[in-house]
Write a structure and sequence with these properties.
- With 454 residues, the chain is of the alpha+beta class.
- It has an eight-stranded mixed β-sheet with strand order 1-5-6-11-10-9-7-8, with helices on both faces.
- It is built from 15 helices and 16 strands.
- The chain starts with 19 loop residues before the first helix and ends in a 25-residue tail after the last helix.
- Helix 12 links the parallel strand 12 and strand 13.
- Helix 5 runs parallel beside helix 9.
- It binds histidyl-adenosine monophosphate.
- Histidyl-adenosine monophosphate (HAM) binds next to strand 6, strand 10, strand 11 and helix 11.
Length: 454
């Protein structure tokens, strides 16, 4: 027998409820606006992909691939994975659809859920949301700098002023093997001090040891050689150019010799934007250059690319901590208020006509008193109330009440739609500063509801 327990959302996932969804809409709207200004176009890739896209793209020995992927077999025995990030999918799509065929530079952005089975905590979820951008087709340092400027422009447009930008360079496939040997030699000398996981990483992914959060590992590697001292000439020139472009725009940054990042596709530039308000999960954005990724996932040539992704949940937390209010417009124009069954029917039709004309309306679906209906109108911050009772019905009229200044007029049923549209336009033009008021305490002559004070 199946147990009839009450079902809950899965740990590490969250419902976004009304109130939150509007705030998210505001944030997403600002992101899209800034992306448009910077001339990035949206790409939407599937939520699941062939597992190999991520094992090959992100790297078999990364935490994401080793421990965090939601991988499953479908009915046809194919191994599929819910996307843990967006870059591999975007580059896959770029290759598949030959988006670079004309030798153009593609500037793409995306926004949507990602999935990683990490231990949930504040700012860390299993289904979380990223927005990100990728420039594919150029290795110009301006592309790296633009990507960083772009995410900072979004943060600025959102009103998030406090952040710290860390940048580094991981070198390229030519200079990195040499650095790796030097690092491994150093690490061999401190191996006994490393945690078990890092001892394993010595064989698989020694660079990640520099990123281990374990205190013992951090102490043991405090004096480890840095990539930054072992860049070849091309990587050094590129890194210097990115820094010069940022400095030229007055962007403060810290060069971080230990910035490793958790994905294997990076070459040259890496960066993170941290928020001082977030505690342990303080990275709101991460990114970098990935000139080898296209080839890692089956492309015939190397394709230069650089991008970033930022976590929307963490940005929401940072905005909250910084006290930034996300304004959203009241979404109710008109409340339809009835007295009696016949009026209710008549208003139901009028309500739909108004909605078809683009007017946001609310209508009573219970039989509450006029007072209660007016209170509801106030709660929704409606600008107008259309009130119909027996008298109005008899005369073919509607009482149109302006809920901001309290003025009322009688309008015929035939004219009411155009009068409402006119009034709303006028109120919009005048950008009425005053809030709608609560007119429910006016004596409407109706009987009080049970439990309601007369
Ligand atoms: P990432 O650093 O793995 O990079 O993720 C980017 C951002 O996503 C993080 O800085 C964080 O804000 C957010 N994030 C990551 N994991 C979680 C989680 N479990 N819960 C909440 N937020 C999270 C990438 O994903 C790369 N694709 C970035 C990139 C684009 N590189 C080049 N292009």
């Amino acid at each position: 027998m199946t147990e009839n327990r009450s079902l809950q959302s899965i740990r590490g996932t969250r419902d976004l409820l009304p109130g939150e969804t509007e705030a998210w809409d505001v944030v997403e709207g600002i992101i899209r606006e800034v992306m448009g200004i910077y001339q990035y176009r949206e790409i939407r890739t599937p939520l699941f992909e062939d597992t190999q896209l991520f094992t090959r793209g992100i790297g078999e020995h990364t935490d994401i691939v080793n421990k965090e992927m939601y991988t499953f077999e479908d009915q046809g025995g194919r191994s599929l994975t819910l996307r843990p990030e967006g870059t591999a999918s975007v580059v896959r799509s770029w290759l598949q659809h030959r988006l670079g065929a004309q030798g153009t530079v593609n500037k793409l952005y995306y926004l949507g859920p990602m999935f990683r089975q990490e231990a949930p905590q504040k700012g860390r979820a299993r289904q979380f949301h990223q927005f990100g951008a990728e420039v594919i087709g150029t290795d110009a340092p301006e592309a790296d700098a633009e990507i960083i400027l772009l995410v900072l422009a979004v943060l600025d447009a959102l009103g998030l002023e406090t952040w710290a930008l860390h940048i580094g360079s991981l070198g390229c496939r030519e200079c990195r093997p040499g650095y790796r040997d030097i690092l491994v030699e150093f690490l061999a000398g401190v191996e006994s001090l490393l945690c078990e996981e890092c001892k394993e990483r010595m064989k698989t992914n020694p660079l990640r040891i520099l990123d281990c959060k374990n205190e013992g590992c951090r102490l043991a590697t405090a004096k480890a050689p840095s990539h930054l001292d072992h860049l070849d000439e091309g990587c050094q020139i590129h890194f210097n150019a990115v820094q010069a472009l940022l400095s030229d725009r007055g962007i403060p940054f810290t060069v971080d010799p230990r910035l490793v990042r958790g994905l294997d596709y990076y070459e040259r530039t890496t960066f993170e934007v941290l928020s001082p308000d977030l505690g342990a999960q303080d990275a709101i954005c991460g990114g970098g250059r990935y000139d080898g990724l296209a080839q890692m996932i089956g492309g015939s040539d190397r394709v230069p690319g650089v991008g970033f992704a930022a976590g929307i949940e963490r940005i929401m937390l940072a905005l909250e901590a910084a006290g930034v209010e996300l304004d959203f417009e009241p979404i109710c124009d008109v409340a339809l208020v009835h007295i009696g069954e016949a009026a209710r029917q008549r208003l139901f039709a009028l309500c739909d006509i108004l909605r078809r004309a683009g007017v946001a309306c609310t209508i009573e679906l219970f039989d509450r008193s006029v007072k209660a209906q007016m209170r509801e109108a106030n709660r929704r911050e409606a600008l107008l109330a259309l009130i119909v009772g027996e008298n109005e019905l008899k005369d073919g009229m509607v009482t149109v009440k302006n809920l901001v200044d309290g003025e009322e007029e009688q309008v015929s049923f035939e004219d009411v739609v155009s009068v409402v549209l006119e009034k709303l336009e006028k109120m919009d033009d005048e950008a009425v500063d005053e809030e709608p008021q609560d007119w429910s305490e006016e004596d409407d002559g109706s009987e009080p509801e049970p439990g309601e004070a007369a």
